[in-house]
From TrEMBL:
<feature type="region of interest" description="Disordered">
    <location>
        <begin position="320"/>
        <end position="376"/>
    </location>
</feature>
<dbReference type="InterPro" id="IPR050147">
    <property type="entry name" value="Ser/Thr_Dehydratase"/>
</dbReference>
<dbReference type="GO" id="GO:0003941">
    <property type="term" value="F:L-serine ammonia-lyase activity"/>
</dbReference>
<protein>
    <submittedName>
        <fullName>Threonine dehydratase</fullName>
        <ecNumber>4.3.1.19</ecNumber>
    </submittedName>
</protein>
<dbReference type="GO" id="GO:0006565">
    <property type="term" value="P:L-serine catabolic process"/>
</dbReference>
<feature type="domain" description="Tryptophan synthase beta chain-like PALP">
    <location>
        <begin position="36"/>
        <end position="304"/>
    </location>
</feature>
<dbReference type="GO" id="GO:0004794">
    <property type="term" value="F:threonine deaminase activity"/>
</dbReference>
<feature type="compositionally biased region" description="Basic residues">
    <location>
        <begin position="322"/>
        <end position="331"/>
    </location>
</feature>
<dbReference type="GO" id="GO:0009097">
    <property type="term" value="P:isoleucine biosynthetic process"/>
</dbReference>
<keyword id="KW-0663">Pyridoxal phosphate</keyword>
<dbReference type="InterPro" id="IPR001926">
    <property type="entry name" value="TrpB-like_PALP"/>
</dbReference>
<dbReference type="Pfam" id="PF00291">
    <property type="entry name" value="PALP"/>
</dbReference>
<dbReference type="GO" id="GO:0006567">
    <property type="term" value="P:L-threonine catabolic process"/>
</dbReference>
<keyword id="KW-0456">Lyase</keyword>
<feature type="compositionally biased region" description="Low complexity">
    <location>
        <begin position="339"/>
        <end position="348"/>
    </location>
</feature>
<comment type="similarity">
    <text>Belongs to the serine/threonine dehydratase family.</text>
</comment>
<dbReference type="InterPro" id="IPR036052">
    <property type="entry name" value="TrpB-like_PALP_sf"/>
</dbReference>
Length: 376
């Protein structure tokens, strides 16, 4: 995608640089704390799935949060950290802060899934609920950071967060895909994965939901805040994407696919019923976009699995996915039987010894064994 350049409304982020070296450094830091998530071949979809729903806290977000806190510790920054999040970034920050002994405050919008709020509280972080959207929670968190001297940690528009998310791409690279599909909210995951993979010739395609497409609009030159439509993919509902991530996506992404809400719901149910994989709405977004992306070795990132139990139960009750297409069989010509070549030497004659004859004991035992097997 072509670089759209900076808008007059953008903050000055010209001196902020993040590259492949930062992603590799993040991988070295995180290896001690986080396991490598598996790659699953979803045969019915014809796609490999990077299962970040099996990551600590059930989402890739913990990668960026932990890397940012580790970098801050290396710099000697011991301030309490505060963040705004619809749920997954808050859980990642809470877990990382717990592991490193850092005080953490999370601001979550009113109406955030209860399972995500409980996950944040479980790791000892302070939970504040404010506003009806991520962006309202974001503004409130920034105000608290300025008033109290906290360190504000963006969910996506931060170089260390982007580098941490890019470790997903490093792990995928070992499986040599030709195209990787990632969901886009603020753009942190897409930016990091693209940084990790573009130098290896891998196509990286983003996925957004219809009506929740702030990144597509921003790359087209429309940088106004949008009112995101109601969507199952609550994790990607942002009014304005990141400024750093916008520039990276403009330079590195090959395309962005827009998915309808009905497609997203059906994909999530099919994942649960056909692949036994539980994903949240944003987690199923890349796979839903995969049907419109060409490639022989496609990989879709299942970014998270923190779906509310009641929402999942309602989806399984309401959505009846279409049956998948039957696999096509490869047509191969049957081997032609060749007549035996004429030979001057006559074939040997095999004589079968009757069972009641007086044959040697070894031959008789073999004949009895054949008779028993055929009547079994």
């Amino acid at each position: 995608m072509a670089d759209t350049g900076a808008s007059s409304q953008d903050p000055d982020v010209g001196d902020v640089n993040v590259g492949v070296g930062d992603v590799l450094a993040a991988q070295a830091r995180l290896r001690r704390y986080l396991p490598e998530t598996p790659l699953h071949h979803a045969e019915r979809f014809g796609v490999m799935l990077k299962l970040e729903n099996l990551q600590r806290t059930g989402s890739y977000k913990v990668r960026g949060a932990l890397n940012s806190l580790l970098v801050a510790r290396e710099r000697g920054d011991e301030r309490p950290v505060i963040c705004a999040s619809a749920g997954n970034h808050a859980q990642g920050v809470a877990w990382a802060a717990y592991r490193l002994g850092v005080q953490a405050i999370t601001v979550m919008p009113i109406g955030a899934p209860q399972n995500k709020i409980a996950g944040v509280a479980h790791w000892g972080a302070t939970v504040r609920q404010h506003g009806n959207s991520y962006d309202e929670a974001f503004m409130f968190a920034r105000e608290l950071a300025e008033q109290n001297g906290y360190r504000f940690l963006s969910a996506f528009d931060d170089p260390d967060v982007i580098a941490g998310q890019g470790t997903v791409g490093i792990e995928i690279a070992a499986h040599t895909p030709d195209v990787v599909i990632v969901p886009i909210g603020g753009g942190g995951l897409a930016s990091g994965v693209a940084l990790a993979l573009k130098s290896q010739g891998v196509r990286v395609v983003g996925a957004q939901v219809e009506g929740v497409d702030s990144m597509v609009r921003a790359l087209a030159g429309d940088v106004r805040a949008i009112a995101p439509a109601a969507s199952l993919a609550d994790g990607v509902r942002v009014k304005v994407p990141g400024f750093i991530t916008r520039r990276l996506c403009a330079n590195l992404l090959d395309d962005i696919v827009i998915v309808r809400e009905a497609e997203l719901r059906e994909t999530l149910v099919r994942l649960a019923l056909e692949e036994n994989i539980i994903a949240e709405g944003a987690g199923a977004l890349a796979l839903a976009a995969g049907r419109r992306v060409s490639g022989k070795r496609k990989c879709a990132v299942v970014s998270g699995g923190n779906i509310d139990a009641q929402v999942l139960a309602q989806l399984l009750s309401d959505v009846r996915p279409r049956p998948p297409r039957k696999p096509r069989r490869r047509k191969t010509e049957p081997a032609r039987l060749q007549p035996p070549a004429a030979s001057a030497t006559p074939s040997p004659v095999v004589r079968i010894q009757p069972l009641n004859s007086t044959a040697a004991p070894r031959t008789r035992r073999a004949a009895v064994a054949v008779e028993e097997e055929t009547t079994w």
